Amino acid sequence: MYYYYLNLSVGLLPSSIVWTVPQGWSIIAGQGTTRATIQTGNTAGYVNVAATICGVTRTKSMYVNIGGGGPNPLFVSNNFFNIYPNPVSTNQEFSIAFASDSTAKIQAKSLYTKPSGEATKYKIVVFDNNMQKVIQTQSSGESVTLNTSRLINGLYYIRVTQGKKSETQQLLIQN
């Protein structure tokens, strides 16, 4: 199973979101939301997401190839990483999923190691609203899960660095 994301600008509330997958694939969870869990099939094809905002429907598509050890999950995003859920409640977990390249609006990300055999390393730092470090960790996986049990309600900043690439996004913790 793989997670697929649709990143929307803050304040945009779609009236509908529809995910479609190739024949033989299954949407396990998330139909109608910005995050879908999809079980891939044995054939390649297009994963599509259509979001209707203010009566206008926009569709993003990505061709996902099967082979070479498995399919690549889709990130429908301009971001280097995605945070979900966001906002998150106190005493819950949130995840950060890493995209391999933030230059494309639709990006496939391989879950497999680099040809050199070394996994990509990510440095993750969480700052509070006063820009004080509250969490610092590293990951070489496709995602990392963090717990909010030591954090109070408020706005936090997540900075992810990989090599020379760095990006910061906001995370809202609320009850």
Secondary structure: elements and pairs:
Elements: E1 2-6, E2 16-20, E3 26-29, E4 35-39, E5 45-53, E6 56-64, E7 74-76, E8 81-84, E9 93-98, E10 106-108, E11 122-127, E12 133-139, E13 143-147, E14 154-162, E15 165-173
Parallel strand pairs: 1-7
Antiparallel strand pairs: 1-4, 2-5, 3-4, 5-6, 7-10, 8-9, 9-13, 11-12, 11-14, 14-15
Give the total of domains.
Answer: 2
Tell the overall outline: globular
Within CATH, the superfamily of the largest domain carries the name Macroglobulin (MG2) domain
Strand content: over 45%
- State the name of the first-level CATH class of the largest domain: Mainly Beta
CATH fold description of the largest domain: Immunoglobulin-like
Q: Assembly state here?
A: single chain
Helix content: under 10%
Molecular structure report:
With 175 residues, the chain is an all-beta fold. The chain has two domains: 2-64; 81-103 and 117-173, Immunoglobulin-like, CATH 2.60.40.1930. 0% of the residues lie in helices and 51% in strands. The protein is built from no helices and 15 strands. It has strands at residues 2-6, 16-20, 26-29, 35-39, 45-53, 56-64, 74-76, 81-84, 93-98, 106-108, 122-127, 133-139, 143-147, 154-162, 165-173. It has a five-stranded mixed beta sheet with strand order 3-4-1-7-10, with no helix packed on it. A four-stranded antiparallel beta sheet has the order 12-11-14-15, with no helix packed on it. Strand 11 and strand 12 (133-139) form a beta hairpin. The model is unreliable at 67-78 and 100-116 (pLDDT under 50). Residues 83-173 form the Secretion system C-terminal sorting domain. InterPro entries: PKD_6, Secre_tail. Residues 18-62 form the PKD-like domain.
